[in-house]
Write a structure and sequence with these properties.
The chain contains five helices and four strands; from the N terminus they run βαββαβααα. 43% of the residues lie in helices and 17% in strands. Helix 1 (25-41) crosses helix 2.
Length: 144
């Protein structure tokens, strides 16, 4: 019998519309719990989540039968709907269009986990925009 074995680690980053800084303390904790629950429902194991005031980092092991764009559409759409339905932020909420999704080698997994875990420290040195532009260059998405 032939079996398929996959480990498709994806580091996904997306931001709040207009990069507004809205996630702090309790509302971030609620969103964190929601994202874990939603990943479980979608059968996409989440390895690491970090919620910053204006953006999210999510590291997942994407099953081979799930399309990345469908997963991101679902996670962003359902979380936006939840935030608005529960009046978490007291104003209408939406995510910015698009997202970044970067493959992660198993040999680099611990480095990426630590990077996601330590976002608050990273952003004392570089803004989210500076860091995102650096990624775009490193991944060849924009010219230097």
């Amino acid at each position: 019998m032939i079996h398929s074995h996959t480990k498709i680690w994806i580091h996904i980053v997306w931001s709040v519309k207009n990069r507004e800084r809205v996630f702090f303390n309790e509302n971030a904790k609620g969103l964190f719990k929601f994202l874990i629950k939603k990943c479980d429902e979608l059968k996409v194991p989440s390895e690491n989540i970090n919620i910053q005031p204006e953006h999210i980092h999510l590291l997942v092991n994407l099953p081979s039968n799930i399309c990345l764009s469908d997963f991101v559409k679902n996670i962003k759409g359902s979380s936006s709907h939840w935030l608005n339905t529960e009046n978490i932020l007291k104003t209408k909420f939406s995510w910015q269009r698009g997202y970044g999704a970067f493959s992660v080698s198993s040999s680099q997994l611990d480095i990426v986990k630590n990077y996601i875990k330590n976002q608050s420290e990273h952003h004392k040195k570089k803004t989210f925009i500076q860091e995102y532009e650096k990624w775009q260059k490193e991944y060849g998405l924009i010219d230097e």
